[in-house]
Write a structure and sequence with these properties.
alpha+beta; 6 strands; 27% helix
């Protein structure tokens, strides 16, 4: 499990442990753990899209992880109470079509609503440019150039 600063003890400590364990080493083999973390009717939103239901979320993770050679998250801070959670994280992944297959690292934050010790709503916030666009041939150079010009 990933060690991260934590808030006071709540009824959701088991959920927090399951969440941290799952995200510390994302893999297709670990997708069976999703049912211990998310409710059947979860709403999951990130910059790529939104997904309703555990089946949809599982398919989403399957598509994301299929071509990744590795993907892991390091939780840098967390807060959970009885109905809400948030985590700050850093994700490292390698995909053959991005950054010439070399590792990419992004930082983000997730906010969650919790009911009956399961996540019913999660929204992830991160920079799509840093995740994908900057690592694509041609467009990556343009985006990096524009970012430098804005500073």
């Amino acid at each position: 499990m990933v060690n991260a600063p934590s808030s006071i003890a709540t009824q959701n400590d088991g959920l927090a442990d399951n969440l941290l364990s799952f995200y510390s080493c994302l893999s297709l083999d670990g997708l069976s753990k999703l049912k211990n973390i998310y409710s059947e009717d979860v709403v999951f939103i990130d910059p790529i899209g939104s997904h309703r239901g555990l089946v949809s979320l599982t398919h989403y993770f399957e598509r994301l992880l299929t071509n990744c050679s590795q993907c892991r998250c390091k939780i840098t801070s967390q807060h959970f109470d009885d109905s809400y959670g948030s985590i700050e994280w850093s994700m490292s992944f390698a995909h053959p079509r991005l950054n010439k297959g070399r590792e990419v690292e992004i930082r983000g934050i997730s906010v969650m609503d919790i009911l009956d010790n399961k996540i019913i709503y999660q929204r992830d916030f991160y920079d799509m440019g840093a995740m994908i666009y900057e690592h694509l041939p041609l467009i990556g150079g343009i985006i990096k150039y524009l970012r430098k010009r804005m500073m």
